[in-house]
Design goal:
By secondary structure, the chain is of the alpha/beta class. The protein has 2 domains: 129 residues, 3-Layer(aba) Sandwich (Rossmann fold); 31 residues, no CATH class. The protein is 38% helix and 21% strand. The chain has 6 helices and 6 strands. Strands 1-2-4-3-5-6 form a 6-stranded mixed beta sheet, sandwiched between helices. Strand 3, helix 2 and strand 4 form a beta-alpha-beta unit. The longest helix has 17 residues. This is Serine aminopeptidase S33 domain-containing protein.
Length: 175
């Protein structure tokens, strides 16, 4: 019971932080402070937010272990400004760059980037572009991307979007 209470207190005491990305959009995040300068940045997956249970639980566990954690919404997701976009890995890597820069300026020692699902791919892309964080963790990231957006949406997806103004995305079962 004590552990559950400690996790709840850690989550409830998170500090709201606003960071501007390079487009001037406000990224909204929560900093779980643990009285150290070490920081792990947590990134959510596709159509998800900083409030997904996996990120909440990771942040609480890290803070309980004495490591600060920051979980945030990419632009166009959750509470952050901007429009949601399908794909946009580079924009998410740019958002992550803004977050890393902000906390570096605040004199935090960023010891890891952790991404779940699509966020896992964002941290990998970030690491390939910048070499300033040495530990990169990809939790359940997408791996079979050979088919690309055409494989997911169909060969004529752009024509359908232009004609109808939208596109329905279905899974392999047709749902």
């Amino acid at each position: 019971m004590t552990l559950d209470l400690n996790l709840w207190i850690t989550v409830a005491c998170a500090q709201r932080v606003l960071i501007s990305n390079k487009l001037g959009e406000k990224l909204v995040g929560l900093l779980h402070e643990a009285c150290s300068k070490e920081l792990v940045i947590l990134c959510h997956g596709f159509r998800a937010t900083k409030d997904d249970s996996i990120l909440v639980d990771l942040a609480a566990a890290l803070a309980s272990a004495g490591v600060n954690a920051f979980r945030f919404d990419f632009a166009g997701n959750g509470e952050s400004e901007g429009l949601f976009q399908y794909g946009n890995y580079r924009k998410e890597a740019d958002d992550l760059r803004s977050v890393v820069s902000y906390f570096s300026e605040q004199k935090y020692d960023i010891i890891a980037l952790v991404g779940h699902s699509k966020g896992g791919n964002a941290v990998l892309l970030y690491a390939s572009m910048y070499h300033d964080v040495t530990v990169i963790v990809n939790i359940s990231g997408r791996f079979a991307l050979e088919e690309g957006i055409e494989g997911r949406l169909g060969k004529n997806f752009l024509q359908r979007i232009k004609k109808d103004g939208y596109i329905d995305v279905r899974n392999k079962k047709g749902s």
